[in-house]
Specification:
Layout (H helix, E strand, L loop, with lengths): L2 E3 L9 E3 L3 E2 L6 E10 L2 H8 L8 E2 L3 E9 L11 E4 L9 H4 L8 H4 L6 E3 L2 E5 L9 E5 L3 E3 L6 H7 L2 H13 L6 E5 L3 H12 L4 E5 L3 H9 L4 E3 L4 H9 L4 E6 L4 H9 L1 E9 L13 H7 L2 E4 L7 H13 L9 E6 L3 H10 L4 E5 L1
Parallel strand pairs: 5-9, 12-13, 12-15, 13-14, 15-16, 16-17, 18-19
Antiparallel strand pairs: 1-2, 3-8, 4-6, 4-10, 4-19, 6-7, 7-11, 8-9
């Protein structure tokens, strides 16, 4: 079968190969025919080595498709079911799950070190234990979440990561207060979803910050009240908050420099929400006096900071009701053979989400 493979960490191109086999099927597993997958910036981060991932590997973790077969012991799924791929499934038994913090369950990460694929030359891993830039993938049954028949595969794929992450950051982690002021730094698919979440919660002012003009224009369509480049943020802070700082600032880039900017633009007693996935050797520097004196809350948001299955259901309900726009997030569509074109669209910022149709 066909799959897009990164041979070595640090390479910037994927090879679309037709000799890849999905492996690991057995009890507790399902085989999924992938129909659509989104390209998330985390895929690029794994390719560059910012996020740890053994290679060679098939990127992709934001996918949807249909069940081809189920292994022994899988009773809640059957062949033909439409599913979204969940790269962070909850085991239900670990301490984090028992506390209700299912987004912190490590069961899914344990799968990242087990090969999902094979070629004649050896094992091939799947990013984050999945790997959706392929025609078929075998995953734990918990990674396959049924979706209603009226949810298209491309929309379902977005729910699998970017939308859940961005919406959840605003709805779950920050719990944005109505009438508040918000700034979102980084307005790709996740940042736009955070903007939609802040709008849903009733934020009075939402300032979108991004260096790419097309993304700033998109942010206005999705609910931002104004959109500025990074060097215009100081003026926006003065205009919107009289220089005090925003009630909530979302960092959706994953770099210490933008996290520091986000902190500096959060008002005293306000909330900084860290959404971007950064590198282990990129350190955010804060001094002990400012931490004490400013009393700013720093809230990391892992996969939207809430129960993933409930978040999926909520997102579908909001989409059905017309309260959020998911179709508009898909700015480009490509075939698997054009995957490197999609990578370039992400790197240059010309896309919010590129859908790879498989």
């Amino acid at each position: 079968m066909r799959a897009a493979v990164l041979q070595e960490i640090g390479q910037d191109k994927l090879e679309v190969l037709d000799d890849v086999e999905a492996v690991g099927f057995g009890p507790g597993k399902v085989r999924i025919r992938v129909r659509a997958t989104g390209l998330c910036h985390s895929d690029l981060s794994a390719m560059s080595g910012v996020l740890p991932q053994p290679a060679p590997f098939v990127p992709g973790h934001e996918g949807a498709g249909e069940i081809l077969e189920v292994g022994d012991g899988v009773g809640h799924l059957k062949a033909g079911d439409r599913v979204v791929v969940c790269w962070l499934p909850a085991c239900g038994a670990c301490p984090a799950c028992k506390r209700g913090q299912t987004e912190l369950c490590l069961a899914g990460f344990m799968n990242a070190g087990t090969p999902n694929f094979r070629r004649a030359g050896g094992d091939v891993f799947g990013f984050a234990g999945t790997g959706t830039f392929t025609e078929e993938v075998v995953v734990d049954a918990g990674c396959a979440v049924p979706i209603p028949d009226d949810v298209p595969f491309d929309i379902a794929a977005l729910i699998g990561c970017g939308v859940t992450t961005g919406l959840g950051a605003a709805l779950n982690t920050a719990d944005v207060e109505a009438g508040s002021s918000v700034a979102v730094i980084g307005c790709g698919g996740v940042g736009i979803s955070a903007i939609q979440g802040a709008r849903l919660k009733g934020a009075a002012e939402i300032v979108a910050v991004d260096p790419v003009a097309s993304r700033r224009e998109s942010a206005l369509r999705f609910g931002a009240t104004q959109a500025v480049s990074p060097d215009e943020l100081a003026d926006a802070k003065q205009q919107v908050t009289a220089g005090e700082g925003f009630d909530y600032v979302f960092e959706v880039v994953g770099k210490s420099a933008t996290a520091r900017t986000a902190y500096d633009n959060t008002r005293r007693g306000g909330t900084l929400v860290v959404v971007g996935a950064g590198a282990m050797d990129d350190f955010l520097q804060l001094n002990m006096f400012e931490l004490f004196f400013d009393e700013k809350r720093i809230l990391p948001s892992m996969y939207g900071g809430g129960d993933v299955l409930r978040s999926y259901e909520r997102t579908i309900a909001l989409w059905r009701a017309g309260r959020i726009d998911l179709e508009g997030l898909i700015t480009h569509r490509v075939q698997l053979s054009e995957i490197n074109e999609a990578l370039d669209q992400m790197r240059t910022g010309t896309s919010l989400r590129t859908c790879i149709e498989i």
